[in-house]
């Protein structure tokens, strides 16, 4: 059986999924704002799927674009990945800006080349303070150094006089970082890496998620103490161009001020599965 017969038809075109996200302490300037979450494209060549993703993205016009890594799959995919990502970013045109972290598949060569893509603030263990919106974006890489990232955030927040007042949003990759986020006061983490399991056989959990988190936590909204993590199923595949009962995902978060989803829990827990 070929991979093509295993894989159900992809959505035509990929539809941005509006997800209302309630966050306490959200700055007033962020109320009602939209955040488009792109993750795990795993670009190997300029295939028709990416043309559809670019076409869809050109019609969304979010306030923010947040990208959480694995733009490419393997060494020597850098040039194709750079071309697709360049076209994608050119099509996105977010009203405020695009911010990005890196994943475990992104090579050092790609990271150097990515700086040529105009319109993206790449955050590799760095932070960006948006004082007008009352937020700080923090971005990680692999291996992840969240402490260094938070030190950078604190120094920047001190410099602009918003230390302790800025709402911290992490662009991460591996979901297990949410536990550390909860300890260190990062309120919301956008995450990827798992692809939602990529192959699910119709059951409400994944059989594999390339991570050390439980399989039932493979995608959705996770809660840990007073922090929340949103794991996208991503837009691409790794190892095989196959998805089964686990469609690609392009979340568009609509932010509102309110209680965190789910009940308080000291352990990481999935409060909404997707
Ligand atoms: Fe990935």
Describe this structure in words.
By secondary structure, the protein is α/β, with parallel strands linked by helices. It has a single domain (3-273), classed as Purple Acid Phosphatase, chain A, domain 2. 21% of the residues lie in helices and 25% in strands. It contains six helices and 13 strands. Strands 6-7-8-9-11-10-13 form a seven-stranded mixed sheet. The chain has a six-stranded mixed sheet with strand order 1-12-2-3-4-5, with no helix packed on it. Strand 6 and strand 7 form a beta hairpin. Helix 2 (48-57) packs parallel to helix 3 (78-92) and helix 3 runs parallel beside helix 4. The longest helix is centred in the N-terminal third of the chain and has 15 residues, at 78-92. The protein is globular, with a radius of gyration of 17 Å. Mean pLDDT is 92; it is low at 1-6. Bound molecules: fe (ii) ion.
